[in-house]
Amino acid sequence: MRHLLDYQEGERVVTFCLVKSKEVGVASNQSEYLNLELGDRSGTIAAKLWDVTPELKEAIQVKSVIKIDATVQVYRGKKQLVIQRVRLASPADEVLMESLVPVSPIPADELWEKLQQAVRGIKSETLRAIVTEALADEEIGGRLRCYPAGVRMHHNYYHGLLEHIVSLLAAAERLLPLYPQVDRDVLYATCILHDIGKLYELSDPIAPDYTTPGQLIGHLVMGAEIVSGICRKRGIPLGDPEVLHLKHCILSHHGDVENGWGSAVSGKTPTAVLFHYLDQIDSKMNALGQALAEMGDEEWAYAGALRRKVWRGY
């Protein structure tokens, strides 16, 4: 099966896709048109629908699943679609949502089992109880199996957050022997829970945007609040040293406050400092991997997470 990004200039595209963004424009003849960002599991592509009718303008919304008949054009060096015909998908089409969004290359069930193995390896009864309670929550567990780690920057695909967590746990396991001053159990718990607030900072796993609580509070503070809520439910004192350490690592994992990246406090323990750099490595390398994969035959490509162009190398 071919996906949106597989088509080349001049080819006809007849397929189902997801509307990721929509903007109404007015042409020189005063007719309205739509600038759309369409997506499937291969990625996203810009599209234009000229001379849009009022009915279509109303029907096509962000997160709509549509069937298009379009042609690929190249505009300013980038492919885009010019749509000739379009309709909303119906239940009879039986379109699988997983076919419409980029998905982690690692199956969710495989990632979930590795996550559970890590939880079982946490020796601290307090931290294991907190992590277990979080993952057992129907809403948290359900969202973790599908939510991305972000809107655009890294692991920005279906169950990308779960992949990010498991990758961090693997990196932590390999680095811990080098740094005996790091608290192993707090590091593991932080790997698992550091971005748990993103499950409420982001609106959904299909075409995520930032929720009002996400914009007003942010996922670091939301994550610490989730930990506090679990402690109250389980009767774990909020002043417990391991609880304080875990919340500190969550609240500081974006690095020094002076960087302006969103940390509530700068890292003040070896575990907090190490985790910040682990998170940076995994997020940046994932973003670079995506940029390189999308380069095609180009030698250079822009990597948004690094805010610079990157070189393929040889």
From TrEMBL:
Query: What is an example of a GO molecular function annotated in this UniProt entry?
Result: hydrolase activity
Establish whether keyword Hydrolase is in the entry: yes
Sorted keywords for this record are: Hydrolase
Q: Which InterPro entries match?
A: HD/PDEase_dom, HD_domain, NA-bd_OB-fold, NA-bd_OB_tRNA, YhaM_exoribonuc/phosphodiest
The record's listing under SMART domains reads: HDc
Q: Which residues form the HD/PDEase domain?
A: 157-293
Q: Which GO terms describe its biological process?
A: rRNA 3'-end processing
Q: Name the PANTHER family on file.
A: 3'-5' EXORIBONUCLEASE YHAM
* Stated name of the protein: HD domain-containing protein
Q: Which organism is it from?
A: Brevibacillus thermoruber
